[in-house]
Specification:
Enzyme class: oxidoreductase
Number of domains: 2
Structural class: alpha/beta
Function: Catalyzes the reduction of 1-pyrroline-5-carboxylate (PCA) to L-proline.
CATH architecture of the largest domain: 3-Layer(aba) Sandwich
Largest sheet: 8 strands, mixed
Family: Belongs to the pyrroline-5-carboxylate reductase family.
Pfam families: F420_oxidored (PF03807), P5CR_dimer (PF14748)
Number of strands: 8
Subcellular location: Cytoplasm
Helix content: 55-70%
Length: 274
């Protein structure tokens, strides 16, 4: 891991990554986080014992890695204010902001920067994240390794070689926790109609999803085979799956993911002004 890492922004995702890095052995003294005022930094400083600063330029002055963890709507102002320091220091820049492409952020930082764009997801907050990463041509192999280590602190990492594929990553993992939450919600409602208490239904649905995910992760079989293994001819599972197929669940999921990817593309244009 690089010597010094600065997080511009100290919100939930930044805090989760910092906590994961420390748990993996990175010294808190090598990490700095910034926010507009000290009251926003007090909790993370107390909990993780990292360095904090309200001055972004001071915080990046000797950083090897700069993680941009601010809202997309204020990214331009933040980057343009950092331009001179970043141009002088030439750190690896990692953006975890949704919707903003690497070239746009690079331009706001003065250009010619080693840029990694990351699409994390909210399970990163509990150490079970899935992040898609893209690197521009300025990023070295060693810097790619640093970015991998940084995001593996909160889950798994998959690299894509074309930035446009991050829209697909958004559809399959970035936004997808909400798909599963919707499934839990629908299963709980249906189970209540079948007579179960809501709390019981919720616990059973969530635990079953956790178990199924672990089985899929640990098995060398594909999901179609695992599904088939649960189904007995003429049995209850077969009847449920048959109903889902007849209701065109696959098409619904595919259409929803396409809509998600389309919206990601549109947001990128809106935010960058292109």
């Amino acid at each position: 891991m690089a010597n010094k890492i600065t997080f511009i922004g100290a919100g939930n995702m930044a805090s989760a990554i910092i906590g994961g890095l420390i748990d993996s052995g990175v010294a808190p003294s090598t990490i700095t986080a910034t926010a507009p005022n000290n009251s926003e930094l007090a909790a993370i400083k107390q909990r993780l014992a990292i360095n904090t600063d309200t001055d972004n330029n001071a915080a990046v002055a000797d950083a090897d890695v700069v993680v941009l963890a601010v809202k997309p709507q204020i990214m331009r102002n933040v980057c343009e204010a950092l331009r001179d320091k970043v141009q002088r220091q030439q750190p690896l820049v990692i953006s975890i902001a949704a919707g903003l492409d690497a070239d746009t952020i690079d331009q706001w930082l003065g250009g010619n920067n080693a840029m990694v764009r990351c699409m994390p997801n909210t399970p990163s907050l509990v150490g079970y994240g899935a992040s898609g990463l893209y690197a521009n041509a300025k990023v070295s192999d060693a810097q790619r390794d640093v970015a991998t280590q940084l995001m593996e602190a909160v889950g798994i990492v998959e690299w894509v070689e074309e930035e446009a594929l991050l829209d697909a990553v958004t559809a399959v993992s970035g936004s997808a926790p909400a798909y599963f939450f919707l499934m839990f919600e629908a299963m709980e409602e249906a189970a209540v109609k079948l007579g179960l208490p809501a709390a019981t239904a919720r616990r059973l649905a969530i635990q079953t999803a956790l178990g199924a995910a672990n089985m899929a992760q640990q098995s060398d079989k594909d999901p179609a085979t695992l599904k088939q293994n649960v189904m007995s001819p003429g049995g209850t599972t077969e009847r449920a799956i048959q109903h889902m197929e007849e209701a065109q669940l696959r098409t619904t999921i595919a259409d929803a993911m396409q809509a998600c990817a389309d919206r990601a593309q549109a947001m990128a244009k809106e935010l960058s002004g292109k």
